[in-house]
Amino acid sequence: MDITPCRDKWAGTMSDRERFNRQMHYQSIDRCFNMEFGYWEENFELWPLFKENGITTNGQADRFFNFDRITSVGSATWMRPGFPEETISEENGKRLIQNRDGLIAEVPIDGHGTIPHYLKSSITTPDDWKQCKEERFDLNHPDRTIDIAALQQRHPADRDYPLGVGCGSMIGKIRDMLTFEGLAYACYDYPDMVEDMVETCCQLVENSLDQLLPHMTFDCATGWEDICYKNGPIVSLDFFTEVIVPRYKRIGAKIHAAGIDLWYTDCDGDVRPLLPGFMEAGINCLFPYEVNSCIHPAELLSEYGTDLRIMGGIDKLEMRKGKEAIRAYLDSVAPLVERGGYIPFCDHRCPPDVSPDDYIYYLDLKEKMFGMG
User: Fold this and answer.
1) Which residues of 192-231 are buried (b: 16+ CB within 10 A; e: fewer)?
2) Do residues 223 and 283 touch, judged by C-beta distance below 8 A?
3) What are the φ/ψ torsions at residue 169 (nearest 5 degrees)?
4) What is the pLDDT of residues 345-356, one digit of tens each?
5) What is the distance between the alpha carbons of residues 297 and 299, in angstroms, rounded to a whole number?
6) Which residue has the higher pLDDT, 1 or 339?
7) What's residue 113's pLDDT?
8) Helix, strand, or coil (residue 220)
9) How confident is the model over 264-281, as a mean pLDDT?
10) How many Å apart are CA 92 and CA 106, to the nearest integer?
11) pLDDT tens for residues 133-144?
């Protein structure tokens, strides 16, 4: 679908790729890298600027707002095949489903956005995992073979935008498969099973990297590790340090050998207890860095200095409060943009209760403050 941008791209003298790399390495730039993390599904139904212009996805929204381009590639580093998606029953306004991770969940029949109510996991015992591993985690599944030539054509070495290489998830997707509560119990009831799950995830990522890294150049590594909430990590620090961090180190060794020194991972909640382990293994950037479950990005960047980078960190709850709150918050991160190693955008998907007019004000103010035009 052809998208007609609603605004000009921020003026600049550097390519998106050069700008991103220099900004994340504390070097001088023409202007701030301009990006956002996306929007709730409801935004596409409720915001007039999306509805009236036929914008229905986050990718389309990126082009509509003319953001700088950033993308990543990887391979199948989770189940292949997944569990069949199916509806089990419908009653009282709720649909009982099985999802691709094998979870039985309740979701609203009307489809409004909400976190599903997970009732049961298909994996609860080592025997369940043994069968699932044999059926769905085969390292040699055809989907895990990467068409390198096609990726090289799609993302040439002389591209003008930053490209990340996907480093998957060591424990976040396992949480998806076991549920929050199920993972908490399994770490104590079946620690060997959970460690074998982590090892399997690590091998799948290593397999992907072994295919990609010799043939393509990347500007960063990316990951998804959603294992924290407002009270900290959902696994014990001992388990994280003894089981997960060594697998991160194996992945870090591969990407560092390929010349990649920037690795960000998406982990919501209060990530502070995990930061030492992240950084020891080479994960040196937080994305999209939720503020309310943690602290203002300035505090973390002050504590860790230039060893840490942050992408995101614009408090969505402040964005809900209107223009004065938006201006105040952007003022609070302006020194971080000037310092480098920080790219400001909404600290997760922008929710629909942010006024569309205020959101446009936010984009305009970001350009005025950080576009450096």
Assistant:
1) ebbbebbebbbebbbbbbebbbeebebbbbbbbbbbbeee
2) yes
3) -145, 130
4) 999 999 999 999
5) 5
6) 339
7) 64
8) strand
9) 94
10) 11
11) 999 999 999 999
In this prediction, residues 27-53 reach a mean pLDDT of 97
**What's the mean per-residue pLDDT of the chain?**
95
Q: What pLDDT was estimated at residue 373?
A: 58
CA–CA gap between residue 166 and residue 5 (Å, rounded): 28
Q: How much of the chain, in percent, has pLDDT values that exceed 90?
A: 88
Yes or no: say if 88 and 104 are a contact pair by the CB < 8 Å rule.
yes
Does residue 202 come out as left (phi exceeding 0), alpha (psi in the -120 to 50 range) or beta? alpha
Of 220, 339, 239, the residue nearest 287 (C-alpha): 220
Instruction: Decide: 5 and 316 in contact? Cβ < 8 Å.
Output: no
Query: Looking at residue 4, what is its pLDDT?
Result: 94
Average pLDDT on 192-218 reads 98
Cβ contacts of 94 within 8 Å, gap of 6 or more: 106, 107, 108, 109
**C-alpha to C-alpha distances, 172 to 226, 227, 233, nearest whole angstrom:** 5, 6, 11
Query: Would the pTM of this model clear 0.85, i.e. be above it?
Result: yes
Tokens read off for 343:
């790219």
Residue 107 CA to residue 116 CA, distance in Å, equals 5
Which residue type is seen at 70? I
Query: Has residue 225 got a pLDDT over 70?
Result: yes
- Domains in the chain (CATH in brackets) are 16-77+122-370 (3.20.20.210), 84-121 (no CATH)
DSSP secondary structure string for all residues of 310-323: EE--B-HHHHTT-H
Pairing of β 285-287 and β 309-311: parallel
- Written as one string, the DSSP assignment of 273-295 is GGHHHHHHHT--EEES--STTS-
Question: Strand 117-121's sheet: what is its strand order?
Answer: 86-91, 94-98, 103-108, 117-121
